[in-house]
Design goal:
By secondary structure, this protein is an all-alpha fold. The protein has a single domain, classed as Up-down Bundle (Ferritin). The chain has 7 helices and no strands. It has helices at 3-34, 38-64, 71-87, 94-120, 127-149, 152-156, 168-179. The longest helix is centred in the N-terminal third of the chain and has 32 residues, at 3-34.
C-alpha cells in the first residue's frame, strides 16, 4: 500500500473521530447531569472535558493535513450526541454506564489504529498524541467498567471484553514498528488486526 493510501486512511479516520468526539462530549454532558452521586458527576464531567480536548487535538491534525471535517457528519454527531445525552435521564443508571464503557473500549483501538496509520503515512509527529489519547480512553473504559461491575446487573451479565493493560498500548505500537517493513513504499495492508473499527465511535454507524 502506498503512502497516499495510508494518508487517505488516516484522514478518513481523523474526520470520523473528530465528529465522534463531538457526539461523545454531548452525550457525556447529559450523562453527568443525570447521575445523583457527586463523585460520579465529577468524574463523568472530567471525561466530557477530555473528549472536547481530544476533538481539539484531532482538529489540529486535520488542519495540518489541510482537510476539513464532514459537515453532514458534524450535524449527525450533534443530533446523536444530544439525543443520547437526553436519554440518560430516562434509561436509568446502568444503561448509560454500560454503553459508555463499551464505546470507550472500542475508542482505544481506534486511536491505536490511527497511530499506525500516521506512522505508515509518514506523519510520525502525530503518533505520540494518538497513543496518549488511546491511554486516556483506556482510563475512561476502566472507570465505566468499574461502575458497571459494581452494579448487580453488571455482576450477572457478560460485559464487553476487557482490554489489555494500559502499558500494552505503547508496547504494542513499538512491536508493530519493529516488525514493519522498513520502506514506507508498497507497504502491506494493515489487515484485520488494525482494521479501522467503524463502530468504534458513537456515531460510526451513521457514517457516510
Amino acid at each position: 500500500m502506498s503512502d497516499q493510501n495510508h494518508l487517505q486512511n488516516l484522514v478518513e479516520l481523523l474526520r470520523l473521530a473528530y465528529s465522534a468526539e463531538l457526539a461523545a462530549a454531548y452525550a457525556y454532558r447529559g450523562h453527568w447531569h443525570s447521575v445523583s452521586d457527586a463523585d460520579e458527576r465529577e468524574q463523568i464531567l472530567k471525561i466530557e472535558n477530555e473528549e472536547w480536548h481530544h476533538r481539539e487535538l484531532v482538529g489540529q491534525m486535520l488542519k495540518q493535513l489541510e482537510t476539513n471535517p464532514s459537515r453532514i457528519r458534524e450535524l449527525r454527531a450533534t443530533i446523536v450526541g444530544r439525543v443520547l445525552g437526553a436519554l440518560c435521564h430516562f434509561t436509568g443508571w446502568f444503561a448509560p454506564m454500560y454503553g459508555a464503557g463499551r464505546l470507550e473500549s472500542r475508542n482505544i483501538r481506534e486511536y491505536e489504529t490511527a497511530a499506525r496509520y500516521a506512522r505508515d503515512a509518514g506523519h510520525d509527529e502525530f503518533v505520540d498524541c494518538f497513543l496518549m489519547m488511546a491511554e486516556v480512553e483506556w482510563q475512561h473504559e476502566n472507570y465505566f467498567r468499574s461502575r458497571v461491575l459494581s452494579h448487580r446487573l453488571g455482576k450477572r451479565l457478560r460485559i464487553w471484553p476487557e482490554p489489555p493493560p494500559r502499558e500494552m498500548i505503547r508496547k504494542s505500537f513499538a512491536e508493530y514498528v519493529l516488525h514493519a517493513v522498513p520502506s514506507r513504499q508498497n507497504f502491506p495492508t494493515l489487515g484485520d488486526a488494525v482494521e479501522v473499527p467503524h463502530d468504534a465511535v458513537v456515531i460510526s454507524q451513521h457514517a457516510d
